[in-house]
Amino acid sequence: MRSNKLNVFLIILILSSCLSVYGSYSFSDVTPQGRNDKYAEFVSMSQRKCVFDYDILLKGDNGNEVLIITGVNYQYDLNTLAQEEGKYLYRVQVTLNSAGDYTIIITITDNGLPSEKLISATCTSPPSFVTLKKFSDYLGFSYSSVVSAADPFYFFQIPEFIKLQAPPLIGSFQASTDSYESIRVEAMTSNIYKVTLVLSPTKLWSDILNNVSITVVYPNAPGYLTPLPPFASFIDSAANNIIAANNILLADNSNVYTSCLYSRFEITKSGNEKPFLMYIPWSPIQIPFYPFLLSQNNTDPNLIQETYFTSISFQDTFTSDTFSFRYLENNLFTNVPKTVNHLSNIVPFSRISDSSNYNISSGVATSSFITTMGPNFDYSIDGENYSPMGSTAPLYLAEGNMNSFTIELCAFVSPHWSSFKINYYDKLSQGLSHTFTNLPGPIDSLPPILKQIELSTIRNYLIIQMNISDNLSGFKFLNTDLWSSKNLFRGNFKDGLYEIVIDLNQYILSSFQSFIPYDVVSNSKTTFLTDYLTIKLDIWPNMNIEASNITNVRFEHSELDVSNQAKNNILYISYPFEFKDIKPQIYNINPLTNLYYYIRPGEYDEAIGAFKFNITVPKNYISGQYSYSLSLSQGQYLDTFQLQKLFGSQAGFTVKSTLGDIMGPVIQILSLTPSKSVDIETSMAYTNITWRFNVIDSINGFKNGTIKIQSGLDLVDYTFFISPKNGLVSGDKYSGIYEITIPVNSKCKSQEFYMRYAYLYDENDFISFYDKFYNYPFQTPFLTTVDMKTFSITTNCIYAQQENVAPSLISFDFYPKYIDTTYSGVLNELNPRLVTFDFVTSDESGILLASLPKIYLHQMSSSPIFQEAVLVSSNETFASYQCKFEIPYGFGFPNGIKVSLFGIVDNQSNFKGYSTDKLPVNEIQVSPVLNLNISIFSTSGLSIHGGDLILFGKQFGGLDTVIFQDKDFNIIRKLTPKRSTVTLIELEGIPSFDMEYIYISVERAPLVSNLYKLDLKDYTPPPDSSSSSSENNNLSSDSNIPNNSPQPCLNQCSDHGDCTSNGCVCRSPYIGLDCSSQVIIVPPKINNTTPESNFTIPTIDNNNVLYAIISVVALNELDNNNNVLNRYSFDKWIVSNNTQSRYQQYTNSTGYIYSASLKNNNDQSITNIGVSIDYFNINEAINITFANQQLQMNPHSLKYSINITNYSFKSSLNSLQLVLSASIESDHNNDECSSKQIGDVVDSESEFIKMQIDKNSLYGRFIKRGVIDGRVKYVTNTLLDSEYNAIETTSKSQTFIGINIPFYSRLAQLDPDFSILVDNRPASDNDNAVCGARKSKLTGAQIAGIAIGCAAFVAIIVTSTVYYFYKKRQTNKFNADIKNKMKNLN
């Protein structure tokens, strides 16, 4: 009995347990509202069907249930959208094969036990007969002021359609047509459709002017809808206004060498109507091109002149192509065909040998091959495509030259790949593949999981926070690498929180239609934004306008005249108040670049119930209907003309301009100097080759641009930055002459120097762009040039000692070797992510100094980043470099960074590169823990008037305080953010600051961010602070400029000066502490390629000749302990005649202006250095004023004026140091005495240095003040002889002087000058004299001296001789040595 009771109890217990499992879950139909609100589809005239998609969420009560949908009582498909423990989100697609009401039964198993759930559904047939309501009797046509043609369209409405989802429709022509290819029907709302008639590129368009009849029907249901009445032709008869047309392309059967052909069409028309133009390739690919209107002359409304442009890309296999320019004239189409012969440059893939290897310990996969095919191939690593000619060049060019070279690819590979490929392929996709399968694993085959997402907006920024996990390799990026693992702010890549900020002025939301998270080994999963994004049912809110909710569209102004000035207009889109928080966008696309010219988000104005969009039309825009587009959801849009069809003409506005111009600047080559083919003689160290060209932008004006010349054998790039303020020889911004010069070393190999690319902007930022190796649909600056080979110069080198030995790496190291890439420092702390690389290279033929090697940094499974090194020092066979590399935030986290080095080239065009596994030290270790300290990366703009500000960074919080400091770090304001997220802070009500810049930091005790410098807009510098430093401006002056200590009056001032309490004040033309040096006439030789001056000086006894050289050597950034942080050498100068010299009345000769641009190692900004040289060939001294100090310019002096523009310092405690070199040398090697003296100057706050050889001296004067940001400030001078290895022998005295420029923001101004003097005492009189074996220290002899004086930051150096007789006996060897030394000084 007891046993039976126990059995019953056990049965009850088991049943209870089963019942607790069965049904222990929740069932939710979470299908988004409206998804299945649609009509049945036509299967045939007698059958309908409905296909409904249901989202079903199953959620277990215990968290360990296995919940599976195992059946549906109708035809179905099942897809798992998301799942986690105990939660399942399924997509069930059910097909109902006839109209009617249904009960859908879904069977679910819960840990193996089945249950059923019910869903009700109704399948509704569409209306049988409906009314098609047209919005217009005419076809629409998108004739903007820029694009000349597009496919015609029209809109219609079917009021009887009341379901939310519009049924699909198809269109057809009622009769055959010789003009159109097809009809495209798109639903814009639930019952409004757009029909597009696609023009045919293969037909003759003989009936294009006829009416066209169209039928729109349900799919599979012909005749079910009422046919539309016939439409008149979209071409207005008034468009028959072309008076003359000219297709400027090529003559028939011309040869084309490029893979991209640019063509212009010039027309004259009789009225404002747009002409109908098309450009059609007839073979072998028949796709029409619509030419773009670039410029327009409306000065005569009856004879309007217009220039159109288009570009056509050739496939490399094409050999002959025929194109037709087609336009409407007298109601007939005129076709102008032309045939071109494309000379293909395909080089078949070839290799001499290849190899591959994977290093398990380092995680580096290496692939290499040797080829003779030149740069005519591409390669890919982990799906990332590269090219020897790409932006990362010369990455992976390991050894050789373009005749034969080795490619060596290294990839930092995740161990979780199943296999990893490196591919090489030519233009025909033929090539070589290396596959790596021996990775240690474990293999990652699962995509990342989007676990949670939250969205918010602050102003025009969309903030997305996500929780993403990945099982093994870790999350890498989302859709684009702009949104990637660098956005991590908590956790790690296997389970982390990320925040992305999207600027709605930069990104069109409607183009973002899905989430596709990728992990490091490229696993991914696509989730459409119309679906639930996570198991938590997170959704992507619709932030775009729905066309069905728009009630009106209008502009504030119906017409704008933008002749010579930009003007604003406002677009109003009336929209219901309930949607005021969405973020609608309009945009304008530049047809020449296919890039957004602008994107404008709208702001809701509650007073008028409409979104407002501000539009600025640039000056001199093309006349006609202004083109813009309104972004809709799912990638759809409505352009100006479509909106006008729906809402009337007020939905657009007209632009007027006397002269219209969206054309970028144009280049016309003028001359190649010395010629197109140049013999490089060995008798000269260098031979200059020069391109002289005209930059034309006759309406808007040329703003700036970049020209890159490349040498074809060694692939060295020579980059020149030009603008009307930099490198202009003559003319102005509308038509200016420019020259770019490359010095070719005499030890060279023959090769071609060609135009690599040109990138030019006009003052409206319209661009013209050319790239030799890539086809871009941009307007080329070479519109008037057919064959770009006319721009190339070939050098013929006759150097006898030809060799193919690559340069070598003598030493390589960097520090630190461990960094935290997620830390930005605290306040003024030097950037903790800065890594300094130092290396030395060598080659017997000499290192090509024009080629700056590049340091490349590689993080796991990602594209490398790189930075050029700077030249520190060099001689005939060695070159020493340094690279200050600021590692981007988060780069290399957490797996570390691999290092490689490429781009070392010798004078014989042999290049050398070192991949990661070839360097002696090759890895930067990175902290694997995410740093939570606050970082500021950037800000929005702020003017001196104050206002609102946005900070961007990392690890912001709700309790932050934003601190503002002035230039002296005094706190001037503390503010609490209005709103903030992890990466963005919004500030309002910032007061005005009448200062050039401020410092910003964020504090949340105990955390403090780095200090961020913000330049304020609209700051007005002190009067005349930007004018020449040589004018008497009565500038404000610092009070801490010291005076020199008094000096004794030596030798009674040699009877050439007056003895004062401060020392001897000399009378012109005498100079020196005892006034014993006299200015005489020795004309300098001014270098026409670099700011260097040379003097040839005879000696008293005429037994030897002295040479003096003065050079601008380098620019260094120093920290507050005078340690060099960044070194910049002056490798390339742009030279022009100084036609605007302030001293023309004194010089009577043509001086030069030298311009150089330095790329800042801190933030890649550009600092420009301008040097002008004037020779004062006058017989009397004159007075000038510099830095509030009157200076006497001696007769026959040489004056340097130097301006250095804004430099982005790492810290406000840092300074710049301009390095000068001066030397004097005799052609006798062992028979001399040399000495060097340093001291203070009496008649100005200056220092001097005197270099002397026997009876000749070189005298330099350095003034201790300069004009810094318009204010006179104290500067110091430092002797750098030990740092730069100055030479001091019996026959040569050399010095390097550093002029230390204090921290500044805008401009540092320098004015050195040079004179020739006679001095009196031999070098042997000095205690520090270095004498030859046959030379004793004598006294009392008269010494011929050279005095060089430097006013401002730079030296005033004066050189001189007593006699006018020059030595005729000079050895050839000594002259050659001097030329080489002059070269090395540059």
UniProtKB/TrEMBL annotation:
<dbReference type="InterPro" id="IPR055463">
    <property type="entry name" value="DUF7035"/>
</dbReference>
<dbReference type="Pfam" id="PF24893">
    <property type="entry name" value="DUF7743"/>
</dbReference>
<feature type="region of interest" description="Disordered">
    <location>
        <begin position="1020"/>
        <end position="1043"/>
    </location>
</feature>
<keyword id="KW-1133">Transmembrane helix</keyword>
<feature type="domain" description="DUF7743">
    <location>
        <begin position="443"/>
        <end position="547"/>
    </location>
</feature>
<feature type="domain" description="DUF7035">
    <location>
        <begin position="660"/>
        <end position="797"/>
    </location>
</feature>
<dbReference type="InterPro" id="IPR056645">
    <property type="entry name" value="DUF7743"/>
</dbReference>
<feature type="transmembrane region" description="Helical">
    <location>
        <begin position="1343"/>
        <end position="1366"/>
    </location>
</feature>
<feature type="domain" description="DUF7949">
    <location>
        <begin position="1054"/>
        <end position="1079"/>
    </location>
</feature>
<dbReference type="InterPro" id="IPR055462">
    <property type="entry name" value="DUF7034"/>
</dbReference>
<dbReference type="InterPro" id="IPR057709">
    <property type="entry name" value="DUF7949"/>
</dbReference>
<dbReference type="Pfam" id="PF23034">
    <property type="entry name" value="DUF7035"/>
</dbReference>
<protein>
    <recommendedName>
        <fullName>EGF-like domain-containing protein</fullName>
    </recommendedName>
</protein>
<dbReference type="Pfam" id="PF22933">
    <property type="entry name" value="ComC_SSD"/>
</dbReference>
<keyword id="KW-0812">Transmembrane</keyword>
<dbReference type="Pfam" id="PF23033">
    <property type="entry name" value="DUF7034"/>
</dbReference>
<feature type="domain" description="DUF7034">
    <location>
        <begin position="807"/>
        <end position="923"/>
    </location>
</feature>
<keyword id="KW-0732">Signal</keyword>
<feature type="domain" description="ComC supersandwich">
    <location>
        <begin position="1088"/>
        <end position="1317"/>
    </location>
</feature>
<keyword id="KW-0472">Membrane</keyword>
<dbReference type="InterPro" id="IPR054484">
    <property type="entry name" value="ComC_SSD"/>
</dbReference>
<feature type="signal peptide">
    <location>
        <begin position="1"/>
        <end position="23"/>
    </location>
</feature>
<dbReference type="Pfam" id="PF25820">
    <property type="entry name" value="DUF7949"/>
</dbReference>
<feature type="compositionally biased region" description="Low complexity">
    <location>
        <begin position="1025"/>
        <end position="1040"/>
    </location>
</feature>
